[in-house]
Specification:
The protein has 543 residues and is of the alpha+beta class. It has a 13-stranded antiparallel sheet. The two termini are 33 Å apart. The relative contact order is 0.12.
């Protein structure tokens, strides 16, 4: 077999793994210099092959499989699938390490040709979507429905990085990104930071970025929300990419070769800082046996073995190549999670699966099961979900009530207005963004410390303890305490919340009535229904 880009960060590690497994490996590159030292160390042959030029030399070693580990796949512009066609035309199997959504999905266009030639063409045989899809399948095996899928990759700072990896990140940062949250929503690459625990008391921040999962998983798993994030260990590097994203968005700075070279050199200067612990996390939530189910799979790599992970799927697949069906497609569901984990047995890698619980289920404990399924579904949000419906809005009439309603950005009075609620989970709780027509307001919910059934809702400088109560089959939200800048408010300054969630005619309904303190009367009341936006569009429609 032959590895194009065999001298790169990931190609070289793939070569080491395949040689350990007894494969006859040829390292291919544009120049012998870039692979000769590694080839001599591993006992590999060398081939001079220009992926974007004449490929005929790739056949000299008579490979049964050609692996593209070069990249960045986002930059394959003039003839992106030239190597794929070459392999099919010459009856050679093809694998690649693509992390580009468009390239990976596009490989399926060659399915019929590959089948006629009797070869397989698998794109994205890497951490995503190969391992991430294996984790989703394992975590959701007993689920009747998948609601959310969330994946994040967080390498350690001492992990080596190559030109292609840096170019791939900068190519996306600051540019439009489509994210599936019940419908395709416009986002921005390298935005929406989120904190993740990676074990040993360590936490890292990941940001939205494109990956094959984002396009493939909504249709493949009929999930209502799919997100992918990545992040670096050092805050200064994350900040630098964020600054570049801001400039890139405005077309003031582009990821030219000179810019990528400079960014790579700067990252090398910071390599001595930080650690060598990396992590990959996959979270899945849905419904199982009539109850919400949430699971997480986490892989951690120590001592610099993280960069081997993108090579693990190919190693696992080539341990039983005869089982791979001919045809061209993204590498989704091609290997099991057990196979992937087994292929890490000689690396310093550990994995764990665990059940997790949403904020409201944790607060309500045994009372959670008394709520109707529609109410539980709305609060079973491990990543992000969007709900839409209609509402009626009433506003108080006195001056102070109107002033407070304006300060909190509560909606204006309306007999009927479209409403949407987006709920995003964080490590500390949830972010609720409510939209009434063009009016938007946001609050932050977290676990309370004043009793097991308490949650805390924060609006700017104010926060309130809410003691959740299940009355019959309704969920009520009375306010028990309040704070301004962390200082306790006297009870006579607390607002009165007559809020309930319930089910009517099979739909989730809400009735929120908030009155001001010291007898100010009604500030706002909104009542209506919400339905989670269902998955309907295909990956092709998204593209």
């Amino acid at each position: 077999m032959q590895i194009i880009g065999g001298g790169g960060v990931f190609g070289s590690r793939l070569a080491r793994l395949l040689v350990r497994d007894g494969h006859d490996v040829t390292l291919a590159s544009r120049t012998a210099k870039s692979v000769s030292t590694l080839a001599a160390e591993l006992g590999c042959a060398v081939a001079i092959v220009d992926r974007d030029g004449d490929l005929s030399a790739a056949l000299n070693s008579k490979p049964d499989v050609i692996i593209d580990a070069a990249g960045p796949f986002q930059c394959y512009q003039s003839d992106p699938y030239g190597l794929v066609r070459f392999c099919i035309d010459n009856g050679v199997n093809y694998l690649d390490l693509s992390d580009d959504a468009g390239f990976t999905v596009g490989a399926a266009a060659f399915d019929e040709q590959a089948k006629r030639a009797g070869v397989f063409v698998l794109s994205g045989a890497s951490s995503v979507p190969a391992i991430s899809s294996a984790a989703v399948i394992a975590l959701s095996s007993a689920m009747r429905r998948i609601d959310t899928i969330e994946t994040v990759i967080l390498p350690g700072n001492r992990a080596p990085r190559g030109w292609s990896l840096v170019a791939a990140i900068l190519q996306q940062a600051g540019k439009p990104l489509r994210v599936w949250r019940g419908k395709w929503i416009k986002a921005e690459a390298w935005s929406e930071p989120k904190r993740y625990e990676i074990g040993r008391g360590l936490a890292r921040v990941g940001r939205l970025i494109g990956a094959p999962d984002v396009l493939i998983f909504p249709e493949r798993f009929q999930a209502k929300s799919v997100t992918f994030r990545a992040g670096m260990e050092l805050g200064v590097l994350n900040w630098a990419v964020s600054a570049f994203a801001w400039l890139h968005k405005r077309n003031w700075l582009r990821p030219s070769k000179a810019v990528v070279d400079l960014a790579l050199a700067a990252s090398h200067l910071l390599e001595p800082f930080g650690g060598d612990r990396g992590a990959m996390i996959v979270r899945v939530a849905g419904e199982e046996g009539g109850a919400p189910a949430r699971r997480q799979w986490r892989l951690t790599a120590e001592a610099g073995d993280g960069p081997f992970m993108p090579a693990i799927p190919i190693r696992a697949l080539l341990r039983r190549p005869g089982a791979i069906e001919p045809g061209a497609r993204p590498c989704v569901g091609e290997l099991t999670l057990d196979e992937a984990v087994s292929a890490t047995s000689d690396l310093r890698v550990s994995t764990e699966c665990e059940e997790t619980r949403p904020l409201f289920q944790h607060a309500l404990s045994k009372a959670w099961g008394k709520l109707p399924l529609e109410v539980r579904d709305l609060h079973n949000v491990p990543s992000a979900a969007r709900f839409e419906g209609w509402a009626k809005v009433e506003r108080g009439g006195n001056f102070l009530a109107l002033l407070l309603a304006r300060i909190f950005s509560f909606p204006e009075a309306a007999a009927a207005i479209p409403v949407s609620v987006t709920i995003e989970e964080t490590e500390r709780g949830e972010i609720w963004t409510r939209e009434f027509g063009a009016k938007r307001f946001r609050s932050y919910l977290s676990r309370g410390t004043n009793g097991a059934s308490t949650i805390v809702e924060r609006f700017g400088l104010l926060s309130f303890d809410i003691t959740l109560e299940v009355r019959g089959d309704e969920l009520h939200f009375p306010v028990s305490r309040g704070r301004l800048l962390g200082l306790p408010l006297p009870k006579w300054l607390l607002p009165v919340s007559e809020t309930r969630e319930f089910v009517h005619e099979g739909k989730f309904h809400f009735d929120v009535a908030l009155s001001g303190p010291i007898g100010l009367g009604l500030m706002v009341r909104y009542q209506g229904y919400l339905e989670q936006v269902a998955s309907r569009l295909t990956a092709q429609e998204a593209a």
